[in-house]
Structures are given as structure tokens and as C-alpha cells.
Known about the structure:
The chain is built from eight helices and two strands. The chain is mainly alpha-helical. It has a two-stranded antiparallel ribbon with strand order 1-2.
Amino acid sequence: MVVYCFECWTENQYHESNCRNCGARLFSISEESFVDKLISALHHPEPTTPLRAAFILGQRQEKQAVKPLLELAKTCTDPYILSAVVNALGQIGDTSAIETLEQLLATSFLNVRLEIIQALRSIGGHRSREILQQCQTSNNEKIRVKAHLALLQIP
């Protein structure tokens, strides 16, 4: 059985008590809060863990996760993790995410761009509305339709 180190995410064998890479104790109870553990899990090498962490952070609307989520959004190349991060940012609803979401809208995967439209709808406000209006002139029909529907629902 594989056990990941909570400090450096190195794979270790279950029978080992310390991480072979950094020496941290593998089975010690961390003093970190649940939210801090979720934020740390955004960088876990097992690919479904960051998805779950982003999902939970969004469901809990954890404002302290906005900055780490934005940092991950700027560097992530996995379209599924990026989509989960964008979804979480939309659920949290912090307007500080709008600039990064706008940048991703111009360069990201289609599934992520569609998720960004939903996030902007959830965040709302004047700037989100402006970006969604610009999306209505996209070359992609899915983007145009989703943006139109989002504008009808924006708070």
C-alpha cells in the first residue's frame, strides 16, 4: 500500500514511519485546520485528490482558499482540475477572481471556458456582465449560447 507524505507528497510504503524524501513522520496528526489541509491537497500528485479538494472548498465557500485557487488556476495544465478550480471560485463568489477568469477565458480549454461563464454568472456584478457580453461575440456557438443564458440569470 502506498502512503503519501503530507509535507512533500512523496510516495512511501505503508510500513515506513518516516518519509524517505523529507523525513517527516507519516502518521502524525497534523495541527493544520481542515481548510488548510484541503488547500494543501490542491497540489496532491494523485489526480482525483485536487478535484475533491477544490470541490469541497467551493461547497464550503471558503474565502481563504481564493488566493491558492487563483494561483493554481494560473499554472494548472490539467483541464479537469482547472475546471474544478474555476467551479470552486464561482461558488465562493469572490470578485477578486474575475481578472484571472477573464484571462483564462481567452486561452483555456473549451470545458474550462464554459465553466468560467458559469462562474462569472455566479460571481455577478458589472465586470462579470461585461465579460459575458463579450462572450456573445465568440466564434464558438457553445460559448455564445452559454454566455447568453448566463446573462439572463446573472444577479
